[in-house]
Amino acid sequence: MSSSSALLGKRSATEPGSPVLVVEDLRTRIHTPRGDLQAVDGISFSLGRGETLGIVGESGSGKSVLGRTIMGLYTDGPVTTVTGRVTIAGKDVHALSAKELRSLWGADVGMVFQDPMTALNPVKKAGVHLTESLRRHRGMNRSQARARAEELLNLVGIPEPRRRLDQYPHELSGGMRQRVVIAMALANEPALLIADEPTTALDVTVQKQILDLLARLQGELGMAMVLISHNLGVVAGRADRVAVMYAGRVIEMADAATLFEAPHHPYTEALLAAIPRLHQPPHVRLEAIDGAPPNMIAPPVGCRFAPRCRYAQDDCSQVLPVLDPAAVDGVATPGHSFACHHPVNGGRH
Ligand SMILES: Nc1ncnc2c1ncn2[C@@H]1O[C@H](COP(=O)(O)OP(=O)(O)O)[C@@H](O)[C@H]1O
Ligand code: SF4
Ligand SMILES: [Mg+2]
Q1: CB of 311 shorter than 6 A to ligand 2
Q2: Which of 7, 109, 122, 146 lies at a 20 to 30 A Cα distance from 188?
Q3: CB atoms < 10 A from the CB of 32, how many?
Q4: Are residues 189 and 276 in the same domain?
Q5: What are phi and psi of 311, to 5 degrees?
Q6: Atom 24 of ligand 1 has which residue's CA nearest to it?
Q7: Is 347 helix (H, G, I), strand (E, B) or coil?
Q8: Looking at the structure, do residues 269 and 222 belong to the same domain, yes or no?
Q9: Which of the listed residues 239, 266, 292 is the one where a domain comes to its end?
């Protein structure tokens, strides 16, 4: 197998130490026939080179809208209203022209979605998906692009890459298709990879292979990665930091070890309790979180988790808790913040 360092012909324009991704007070409002829906409601974070941020939360919490808004796929216009700022490799994403945005997608940021077929054209061979991008963004000729495409398929663990280049998406398994999509996302060595439920559509053994592949490539290529999943177990062991989303907001963020060992938000605690444990016999009922997330068109006043929270008190349904740094003896704990009036595990603001 060719070494991935051979692929690092081009270096990211990002200065060492400066963040690859900065998200500042991002808000995405979707205008629907039933009313306006605040799908992303005031999210801020930054991500450095080589760092992986896991974003977790139940279905409908706004993870995909956040990922797509970061990519510049939702813009400020008649269908959606976007405020705040996203900066990728120093570029203000929502200030880019359509042409500049396409070049950002080709070069600075790659994406992998849940269903590989959304990224693959069924009438194009696997190799063509790769060579088109390499020729357009890297200026390669046909034979250079084909050689690099073969190298990329090798990098993502596809056996017999030369033969696979000439196969159509329907001739590949789901796992192989997702590997092709990952190769496409990595073709131009982006500074940032956004992976939105990259394995949810795959069976369990393939899921682990694909997640391990992403983690390995992310480390070898030094990319920053946003790994989005509804399953906290998927990001466990693969993210440096984890942000937990609920009803469009980040309600807790910490380095992964802290979040898993001592979460302060009751929702994080409940999500952790819902992770399936491998050693549990299958008949043991997992503790799922009772109730449903709020209606995002008219969310409750105060804490949006209050109707489902076992620790809720009167103030919870009156005052919206904001994401503030956790503290020990009045001193802020770097990197750990949560939004709750009555935190668990000894949490304090
Ligand atoms: N195109 C759309 N039109 C209307 N509502 C949408 C659209 N896309 C997402 N939503 C709504 O936005 C909220 C967040 O959705 P999403 O980001 O897909 O959640 P997640 O990825 O966490 O499952 C949900 O309430 C969803 O129904
Ligand atoms: S603010 Fe209140 S309702 Fe919300 S999570 Fe904390 S304890 Fe529960
Ligand atoms: Mg989603």
Answers
A1: yes
A2: 122
A3: 12
A4: no
A5: -105, 5
A6: 60
A7: coil
A8: no
A9: 239
Torsion-angle region of 329 (φ positive above 0: left; ψ -120 to 50: alpha; else: beta): left
Please state the domain count of the chain. 2
Q: Which domain holds residue 254?
A: 246-338
- The answer on 146 and 230 residing in a single domain is yes
Cβ of 74 below 6 Å from ligand 2:
no
Which mutation among 316, 320, 324, 344 tests ligand 2's pocket best, with the greatest number of atoms within 8 A of CB?
316
Report which bound ligand comes closest to the CA of 40: 1
- My answer on whether 100 and 234 are in the same domain is yes
Residues 273 and 234 in one domain: no
Q: Global pTM?
A: 0.92
Q: What is the pLDDT of residue 43?
A: 98
Within this chain, do residues 168 and 259 fall inside the same structural domain, yes or no? Answer: no
Structure-token pair, residue 178? 């997702």
Phi and psi at 245, nearest 5°, equal -105, 145
CB of 247 within 6 A of ligand 2: the answer is: no
Beta carbon of 21 within 6 Å of any ligand 1 atom: no
pLDDT in tens, 47-67: 999 999 999 999 999 999 999
The answer to whether the beta carbons of residues 72 and 104 sit under 8 Å apart is yes
* Domain contains 225: yes
Q: Is the pLDDT of residue 123 over 50?
A: yes
236 in contact with ligand 2, CB cutoff 6 A: no
Q: List, in order, residues 6 or more apart from 95 with CB less than 8 Å away.
A: none
Residue whose structure tokens are 């409940």: 270
Compute, in angstroms, the gap from residue 230 CA to the centroid of ligand 3. 8
* pLDDT for res 204: 85
CB atoms within 10 A of CB 266: 27
